[in-house]
Amino acid sequence: MSEAAKFSMKFPKQVLLTLVFVAVLSFYPLAQFASQEIINSVIAGIVLSVINVTMGYAAIEYSFNKSYTIFIQVVLGGVGIRLFFMVGMLLLLIGVFKFHSIALISSLFGMYSIFLVLEVLYIHNKWQHKIHKQ
């Protein structure tokens, strides 16, 4: 089976549903009370968190059927790399492009937290399925 064929679409669907849910919940408050600068910063924070969770998903899928040691190294090493990437992007967006820092960091942290829960549950469910399959 090819690498691309083994990727499960369950997790991306969960991420998409989460994005739709958050967009529906936040549309009215942002449209009514936020300036364009804040809206742009919130969107940028959400986009960064989607990039982050997508990289995490790729690391999980890439390493899942390898040895446990490789899986842990890729996933935990990937967390470190993703954190450095996120800090770099935050510094760039706030320092160079002058995004609204509170809105950017709040939306990034909020979505990061939600996606982290989804990621951990996804890994847990994959391991449970693998254990029961053996």
Protein architecture, described:
With 134 residues, the chain is mostly helical. It is 85% helix and 0% strand. The radius of gyration is 17 Å and the shape is flat.
Structure at a glance:
With 134 residues, this protein is mainly alpha-helical. Helices cover 85% and strands 0% of the residues.
Pick out the low-confidence regions.
1-5
Class derived from helix and strand content: mainly alpha
Instruction: State the total count of DSSP E strands.
Output: 0
Q: List the secondary-structure elements in sequence, H or E.
A: HHHH
Main sheet properties: none
Round the Cα radius of gyration to an integer and report it.
17 Å
How many alpha or pi helices? Answer: 4
- Specify the helix fraction band: over 70%
Morphology call: flat
Mean pLDDT: 94
**Beta-strand content:** under 5%
Give the distance, in angstroms, between the N- and C-terminal Cα atoms. 19 Å
How many domains, in number, for the residues? 1
What is the topology?
Blueprint: H1 10-33, H2 36-63, H3 68-96, H4 101-133
Helix pairs in contact: 1-2, 1-4, 2-3, 2-4
Which key phrases capture this entry?
85% helix, disordered N terminus
